[in-house]
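debug: dumping io for the single-chain case to check the tokenizer round-trip. Nothing else runs in this session.
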Amino acid sequence: MYKSRFVLFLLIATLLLGSLSACSGQSSDGEHLAMLPLDQMPANVRLAPVSVQTAYQFATANPDLMEQIPCYCGCGNIGHNSNYDCYVSGVDDKGAITFDNHALGCSICVDITQDAMRMLDDGKSHSEIRTAIDATYAKYGPSNIP
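debug: decoded output
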């Protein structure tokens, strides 16, 4: 009797663990998104909520995509020309990043980046991601890409 309960417990535990790993958010083909390590982020980013941390890590590691993705929070008024600018205000000749604090307090910037991350992980092209971002966020205001 105890042995059959133990076997049943192991079976249930195995099924639960399998279903949890299937929902982990990692792509099934084993590819991972490029992310700048958290220890290379400024202290205010390391202290931010995890969704903000991952948005900073992704945006800074993927300028080729994020410079093509607009932001719709109104940050064009402060000189931002893409969603990338919400995270990075400059990169010097040696590759040192000057971080922008804007996305620390803007959920629209972070949501756009999180959506771009998911779509890239799903295999969408840069143009497909841009089209989806425009369709989803244009209701919040004008694009900051001139």
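debug: round-trip ok. The chain has six helices and two strands.
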